[in-house]
Structure formats: structure tokens, C-alpha cells
Design goal:
The chain is of the alpha+beta class. It has two domains: 188 residues, no CATH class; 196 residues, no CATH class. Helix content is 57%, strand content 18%. It is built from 13 helices and ten strands. A six-stranded mixed β-barrel has the order 2-3-8-5-7-6. A hairpin with a 2-residue loop joins strand 2 and strand 3. The longest helix has 44 residues. It starts with a helix and ends with a helix. It is found in: Cell membrane. This is ABC transporter permease. Its main location: membrane.
Length: 398
């Protein structure tokens, strides 16, 4: 077996540039799969960590279908709805979130932005979770009317000049002082379209621009984790009785993680399927290279057989060559994939969508095993063809 392996490796080294070119399809396919699975696992882990920090007794309520970007809704959450939700025996508290588009002027430039706030009851809950992370300066305090916090993306990228702490912004004609810069969680970055031009203030600061009516979302805290799911069902029934089916999205933290995981899984599966095409192309490339190799080495195969090499040994030499091509392509592909995953996360973080990639040993082992299987499967036909050559005819081959 050792002699057979050495012979297969010697033949691959001799093939040189052909072996390298044969690897390309495998490298691209394995690289894409490893990168996407690593990033997908990292995104899922990021969301799970952030949602867990919010608390498993938390329910998110938003008008319309939050997971259907094409869905339109005329449903608005009202103060009466909030009062009715608070009457549910298992509800501990209801936090209202408000947002409105605004025009921001700085350094004689005017840009569009989103102004965001929560009611006083939810202020500490919001700042104590991973929704926002203080990057520079300080948190605004309840009651401040003319202070604002802005995302790092807004400070650095929105205007022609960087916005520093203590700078004044004109928002819809009102002056606000920047007291802090924040980083967005992945969940909030998705809501804010990446975080560019996103600002946070107090309810008092918000109402200088527009009355705090019809919250864009409610955060419901239940009395315990055990009743979160039943409370979510009760809230959903209330809104559907009032507004109709699918009028609101009501999700516990566990359901939110499942929804996001399902969406990411479907997207990853689709893209991995496309990457699989590269593996098919790579497998065909291996087969073509091996068939060509059999034709070029017909006399050599005849000589092997003439000095006593069995059909199984010839078969094994060619199968090992194909397997090594697949394995080498897999190794390079894994390296390319891990580098690609780091590049994707770096680009995402630079775009203020904070995610991470995760190196999972099972993904790497599976990718290498799969690349070897592709190589072996692609080498079966040319290997059998080589093994069946008649030694006398092979030695006469020109």
C-alpha cells in the first residue's frame, strides 16, 4: 500500500501544472462552502448571544409581518392596545419603542436619518442589553431634551466631515448636542439598515420633533420565562381579533432565534447549492485529467502489468491520485474559505453590521471528506479503464 501511495504522489508531482489546474473547481467549491457555513454559524451565534442578553421572558411585538420585507401594513400600535396588553395577568411590563425619519444638518450638509427612542420605563432595560454598546462619550440620561447619541457609522461616514463629541446637530430645525457614540448590535443594525445615520435620544428629546404616538414596536416582559410562550399566544390572539390574521408579529426570544436561524439556513443552503456546482465542475475536471493521464500513460500501465502489477494495484494507483487531488483541493479550499469568512466579517463590521465567523471543526472535517469523495468518485471510471488495459496492447500503443 505504501508503494502504491508513493507511486500515486510521484505521478501527481510529475503532472505539475495539470494537477494544479484540476484543483481549481474543488478549491472554489470547498472555499465557498466553508466561508458561508462559518459566517452563517457566526451570525446565528451572534444573534443568540444578543437575544439571550435581552432575557427569555421577553416578547417582541411589531405591526405587520416583520420577516416579510414585501409586506405592507396599515396597523398601528396604540396606547389603548398597550393598556389592554398590560391587563394580561402574566405581563409584567410593556416598553414602547418609537422611531421617525428626520433631516439632519451638519457642516452645511443635510442628510436623512432615523431618530429612535424608548419610553422612560424601558430606558434602563434598553441601555443595559446588547442592543447598543457605548463606544465613546456617555449615555444620555432620562429627562435630557437637547442631547443625542449617534451611531459610529453616522459619525464617520454620513457627512463629509467626521462628527465628534459635543458637536451640534440640527435635527428638523432643532439643535441637539452629541454626547455619545454607540455601536449597534446585529439585530439593531438589521433594523437600521446597517446603522448609517441612526440616532438615539430620550422620549423628551424625541417629542421636540414629533409627538410620541403609535410605537413602532413593543417589548413585553412577562412575569416568568415559563409563561412567555402562552403570553405571546394571548397577545397575538388579541391583535388578530382586532386587526385580522398576520396583522402583527409576536415572537418570544426563542422564536426569534428560530426564525432567524431558519432564514439564515435557507439562504446558506441556496448559496451552498450554487457552490456545489463548482464541485461538480471540479469533479468533471478531475475525471477529464485522469482519462487524459490514462491515455498518455498507456505504455507505462502496460509495463506495470508486464512486470506483475495486478489490476487492483493499477486501479488503486489511479484512485489514490484522484483522492489526493480532491484532498489537496479541499485543503486549499478550506484555507481559502476561512480567509474568505474573515474578509466577509471584516466588510460587514466596516459596514456597521457586527457579525463574526466561527471556525467549527466539523465543517472543516466534513469539507475535506467531501472533497476526497468527489475526487474518488471522479476517478472511478478512468481508474477502471486503466486497470482493464491489456498489457500487450498497451505496450504497442503509440
Amino acid at each position: 500500500m505504501i508503494d502504491t501511495t508513493e507511486e500515486a504522489l510521484k505521478n501527481l508531482r510529475r503532472a505539475g501544472i495539470r494537477t494544479f489546474l484540476t484543483l481549481i473547481g474543488i478549491v472554489i467549491g470547498i472555499g465557498a462552502i466553508v466561508a458561508l457555513l462559518s459566517v452563517g454559524a457566526g451570525v446565528t451565534q451572534t444573534f443568540e448571544t444578543q437575544f439571550e442578553s435581552i432575557g427569555s421572558n421577553t416578547i417582541m411585538v411589531a405591526p405587520g409581518d416583520a420577516f416579510n420585507l414585501q409586506a405592507n401594513t396599515t396597523v398601528k400600535l396604540t396606547d389603548n392596545d398597550i393598556r389592554n396588553i398590560k391587563t394580561i395577568s402574566t405581563v409584567k411590563d410593556v416598553i414602547r419603542e418609537y422611531a421617525t425619519p428626520v433631516a439632519v444638518e451638519f457642516n452645511n450638509e443635510i442628510k436623512s436619518s432615523v431618530l429612535f427612542t424608548v419610553d422612560d420605563e424601558g430606558f434602563s432595560f434598553f441601555t443595559d442589553t446588547d442592543f447598543l454598546t457605548l463606544a465613546e462619550g456617555r449615555w444620555i440620561e432620562p429627562g435630557e431634551k437637547s442631547s443625542i447619541m449617534i451611531s459610529e457609522a453616522m459619525a464617520e461616514n454620513v457627512f463629509g466631515r467626521e462628527i465628534n463629541l459635543r458637536k451640534q446637530l440640527m435635527i428638523n430645525g432643532k439643535n441637539y448636542k452629541v454626547v455619545g457614540l454607540f455601536k449597534l448590535s446585529a439585530a439593531m443594525a438589521g433594523m437600521a439598515g446597517g446603522g448609517g445615520g441612526f440616532m438615539f435620544t430620550t422620549i423628551e428629546g424625541f417629542e421636540r420633533i414629533i409627538p410620541a404616538e403609535n410605537p413602532v414596536e413593543m417589548i413585553v416582559k412577562t412575569t416568568s420565562t415559563d409563561v412567555a410562550e402562552s403570553t405571546a399566544d394571548e397577545i397575538k390572539d388579541y391583535f388578530e381579533d382586532k386587526y385580522g390574521k398576520k396583522s402583527v408579529t409576536v415572537l418570544t426570544m426563542e422564536q426569534s432565534i428560530e426564525q432567524i436561524g431558519s432564514m439564515l439556513g435557507m439562504l446558506t443552503l441556496f448559496i451552498v447549492g450554487i457552490a456545489g456546482i463548482s464541485l461538480i465542475v471540479g469533479g468533471i475536471g478531475i475525471m477529464n485529467a485522469m482519462v487524459t493521464s490514462v491515455m498518455e500513460r498507456t505504455k507505462e500501465i502496460g509495463l506495470y502489468k508486464a512486470i506483475g502489477a495486478s489490476d487492483n494495484k493499477v486501479l488503486m494507483i489511479f484512485l489514490l491520485e484522484a483522492a489526493f487531488i480532491g484532498l489537496l483541493g479541499g485543503l486549499i479550499g478550506v484555507g481559502v474559505g476561512l480567509a474568505g469568512a474573515q474578509l466577509i466579517t471584516a466588510i460587514a463590521n466596516a459596514s456597521n453590521f457586527p457579525i463574526q465567523s466561527v471556525i467549527i471543526p466539523e465543517i472543516i472535517i466534513g469539507a475535506l471528506a467531501f472533497s476526497m469523495i468527489v475526487g474518488i468518485a471522479s476517478g472511478v471510471y478512468p481508474a477502471r479503464r486503466a486497470a482493464k488495459l491489456d498489457p500487450v496492447e498497451a505496450l504497442r500503443y503509440e
